UniProtKB/TrEMBL annotation:
<dbReference type="GO" id="GO:0007165">
    <property type="term" value="P:signal transduction"/>
</dbReference>
<dbReference type="InterPro" id="IPR002545">
    <property type="entry name" value="CheW-lke_dom"/>
</dbReference>
<feature type="domain" description="CheW-like">
    <location>
        <begin position="24"/>
        <end position="167"/>
    </location>
</feature>
<dbReference type="InterPro" id="IPR036061">
    <property type="entry name" value="CheW-like_dom_sf"/>
</dbReference>
<dbReference type="GO" id="GO:0006935">
    <property type="term" value="P:chemotaxis"/>
</dbReference>
<dbReference type="Pfam" id="PF01584">
    <property type="entry name" value="CheW"/>
</dbReference>
<protein>
    <submittedName>
        <fullName>Chemosensory pili system protein ChpC</fullName>
    </submittedName>
</protein>
């Protein structure tokens, strides 16, 4: 009897089998000011237009305040500043990516980061992703760097970012 291979999607004009699709991770490549970040789709609750935060007096420069998203008060951070990068300054075309947190804290189910445009969907297969040899140096809240289809991307450390927000005692 012939083996049946289910086809469940098409990528770049080529059929992708069920096995190949299960070996891949659906991700979002999210543009920032100087870099782009890569997150699994499941980590991103929603991307919305920029929302002006309620500032928190005395907070570090990377903590922008809280936004109201779907009746939740969500901490908004500049990931670029939090990770040791440049402050993007102008917010023309900025968006907010609301991320699901990972530590299961009911007081902090989401955190939000400022992005510089719309994310693009990526299907990351093992053979397409390679470690990027860039040194983290003293940058924080970064799990590492990868190359996906030849593009260098930052992989955020959401756990670290969540812990830093909790230490501010603003939740």
């Amino acid at each position: 009897m012939a083996e049946i291979t289910p086809i469940n999607t098409r990528r770049d004009g080529m059929a992708v089998t069920g096995k190949q699709a299960s070996d891949a991770v659906h991700c979002l490549q999210i543009p920032m000011y100087e870099e782009s970040i890569l997150l699994p789709n499941a980590a991103v609750a929603e991307v919305v237009g920029y929302l002006e935060p309620e500032p928190q007096p005395g907070a570090p420069d990377w903590y922008l305040g809280k936004i109201t998203w779907r009746e939740h008060k969500v901490p908004l951070v500049s990931f670029e500043v939090a990770s040791g990068g440049q402050d993007p300054g102008a917010l023309d075309g900025a968006r907010v990516a609301v991320l699901n947190t990972l530590q299961g804290n009911p007081r902090l189910p989401y955190i939000a980061i400022v992005t510089q445009g719309l994310p693009s969907l990526k299907l990351a297969r093992e053979e397409q992703v390679t470690p990027d040899s860039r040194d983290l140096g003293d940058r924080q809240s970064i799990a590492g760097f990868v190359q996906l289809d030849g593009v260098s991307l930052v992989v955020p450390d959401i756990d670290d970012l969540e812990s830093r927000i909790q230490r501010l005692q603003v939740v």
